[in-house]
Design goal:
six-stranded antiparallel barrel, alpha+beta, 2 domains, single chain, 3 helices, Thrombin, subunit H, elongated, six-stranded antiparallel beta barrel, 295 residues
Length: 295
């Protein structure tokens, strides 16, 4: 290779390196230009002040400087906009991460709310004070019948825990039902709203005795009340301590059954037709107590 070609190649290489460095330092040069312009304005103002011609040079210099600054500022904003486009995938990723964190927090909050509800149910059971002649067996509802959703449930305690047929089942509010079937470690409970449920009751104000029965529609009825009885709406009905239709079963007195919601006279009969709202709904049952007779 001759000397001329070598000089040309060496010159091209130097120019390439210069171009790359120029590109990398482009932003630095813009800032440097602004600095030099501002410095020039200051020096010119000092010189003009010394010679008495400050007002003559102020306007041109300031205009030139302002134009340059605005140009650099616009270029800076354009560069920032381009950079934001490249940062968009990172922003979207962080947004998805935050959405996941929010969903996790919501799930944990729901879990804490359910724990609080369970604690409230358990506190309700602790408030119950059955007569001393009755024992209690705590149980959890583990299944419901599919054919009569609100009329029977299954609990996780049975004969091995001392549970017997017709034992009364309650929670912190009132009567839930009675034991209909007993296994070794589970029992089926007939809810108070079942058409097969019947229990002797007494009203708290008028002290009237009757029979509370389930209607199968989530409600109760009160039978054997004379047409001229002084029964009133919203009277509370409690267990009387008797078992009118079945042998055995723990039947303590004074447990809440429900509230009188409708009283209708039956002209053809000598009794009243009484509708009762149960104190305990089959919906949402979780923990119950089975009342057992002490031997």
């Amino acid at each position: 290779m001759n000397a001329v070609a070598l000089r040309k190649r060496h010159g091209v290489s130097i120019m390439s390196r210069f171009d790359r460095r120029a590109n990398r330092s482009g932003s630095g040069l813009a800032s440097g230009i602004v600095f030099l312009l501002v410095l020039a304005v200051l020096i010119a103002k000092l010189v003009a002040a010394a010679s008495g011609s400050e007002a003559v040079i102020d306007a041109p210099l300031l205009q030139a400087t302002t134009t340059s600054v605005h140009t650099v500022d616009a270029a800076g904003h354009a560069l920032l906009s381009v950079l934001e486009v490249f940062r968009l995938p990172a922003h979207l990723k962080r947004l998805r991460e935050m959405e996941g964190e929010l969903a996790l927090l919501r799930t944990r909050n729901q879990q804490l709310e359910e724990v609080a509800r369970e604690n409230e149910r358990l506190r309700g059971l602790l408030k119950l004070h059955p007569p001393r002649e009755f024992g209690t067996v705590a149980a959890e509802v583990v299944a419901r019948s599919m054919d009569l959703w609100f009329d029977t449930v299954v609990i996780n305690r049975g004969a091995n825990a001392g549970i017997k047929l017709q034992d009364l089942v309650v929670n912190g509010v009132g009567v839930v039902g009675e034991v209909a079937e007993v296994g070794a470690n589970h029992s089926k409970v007939r809810l108070i709203t079942s058409p097969d449920f019947a229990l002797s009751a007494v009203s708290n104000t008028s002290q009237l005795n009757g029979i509370v029965r389930g209607t199968g529609g989530g409600q109760l009825s009160l039978g054997y009340i004379a047409a001229d009885a002084p029964l009133k709406l919203q009277e509370k009905l409690f267990t009387s301590g008797l078992s009118p239709t079945r042998e055995g079963g723990a039947r303590p007195r004074g447990l809440l059954l429900g509230y009188v919601t409708k009283i209708k006279k039956q002209p053809e009969l000598s009794t009243l037709e009484v509708s009762v709202r149960p104190a305990v709904s089959g919906r949402g049952l979780r923990y119950v107590l089975v009342l057992t007779e002490r031997v």
